[in-house]
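Model the whole thing, not chain by chain.
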Amino acid sequence: MYKYDKKSLIADEFINDEEIRKTLEYAEQNKNNEALIDEILEKARPYKTDKGTFCRGLDHREASVLLACEIPEKIEKMYALAEEIKKAFYGNRIVIFAPLYLSNYCVNGCVYCPYHAVNKHIPRKKLTQEEIKNEVIALQNMGHKRLAIEAGEDPVNNPLEYILESIKTIYSIKNKHGEIRRVNVNIAATDVESYRKLKEAGIGTYILFQETYHKESYLQLHPTGPKHDYNYHTEAMDRAMEGGIDDVGLGVLFGLEMYKYEFAGLLMHAEHLEAVHGVGPHTISVPRIKKADDIDPNVFDNGISDDIFAKICALIRIAVPYTGMIISTRESQAVREKVIRLGVSQISGGSRTSVGGYTEKERPHDTEQFDVSDQRTLDEVLRWLMNMGYIPSFCTACYREGRTGDRFMSLCKSGQIQNCCHPNALMTLKEFLMDYASPETVKAGEALINKELENIPKEKVKNICIENLKKIEEGIRD
Ligand code: SAM
């Protein structure tokens, strides 16, 4: 008998290889079992009670059956269900953020990442606090309110103190239209005490990609450096939660290993967090491996097609309906368009993945982490979203009012979040239109706001929203 215990705090047990293999076998055996597939889809469907709309989600075995199923008519049903769930819980809002690369110094040997320690031709750069200030001003001038900071792992060049100081700098910069309201952090796995300090520094989500849940591959893909320790890396979210961070973001770097394996591992990780801490991941990111300096993309032969990628996004939406899903500019406009419909709730825009890239006139490539596929400006990304009927949102109200972790989840679960998110999104969009947008984007945005005001169900809330929109027009900012 193998030991699979989702409540265990040992990585090898809650992400148990044998359980994943059994899951994949079960999925393969049942991939044409139409009765079971219908039953699983039925279980995942949103249902209403007098307290709101709810969803049960799926466990890793059920969701893996859907992933294995190749019957076109059933896949269409999966897509339709994902869209339905997305609409029920997230409406047509898309949260906007940008990455900010602080430093590409790194002591790890991740073979897919250009920042790996033995890459000798990439210039190493670490932003000073003055340079961070200038980057933040450039991001604020684009209209950004949420950042995800990124750094390699290097205890000498980028110690935790540097990260904490940088967060302080970012929050301290106020420009005439506002400030960065939420800093999410994507840095290497660390200890409970350091997570506690990050929490005290006021971070939003702590993001750490697992890269791969396949332990054997993980050890080969991370041959040197502290990241080589699979268990320490995989147990990081438990330590983060122990340190008081209740919004954590999971992710797999798709293309490193077999996607069905990764998908089951990812859901098991989410189940583990919910079982142990009473709250699942706040977000899931779905990066795919990209071309990068000193990396041969051909060595990663587990790359996934756009269709499989879309199916994975749809099934994450169905399996963990209360978890936000993030997509970056690694993906093209066309792919982003497809997966936003199927479940993605947050996207980056106007991104530069190089250290110090936002203050450069032209997009620099020398310190870039990966090729950016979607190279449009933030203004263009927002107009594109609005032309498709989405409301770009810069809202961070939940975070600022302490609605994180399980408090956020329970609001979301009862559908309440939509009653305040919708007007908040409209107001933050209005701020963007007033302060940063091009005339063409203003036109699209004003039309969208007028249309969306009609979708606020409570007359009282609608009137407050109209009042606030007027105040924003008069120059008052949140
Ligand atoms: N250094 C931190 C760590 O080790 O977790 C995180 C920061 S790293 C800048 C952010 C993420 O970029 C990594 O977790 C990895 O998934 C992703 N990444 C690395 N190389 C990539 C590539 N060639 N294409 C796409 N994404 C990549």
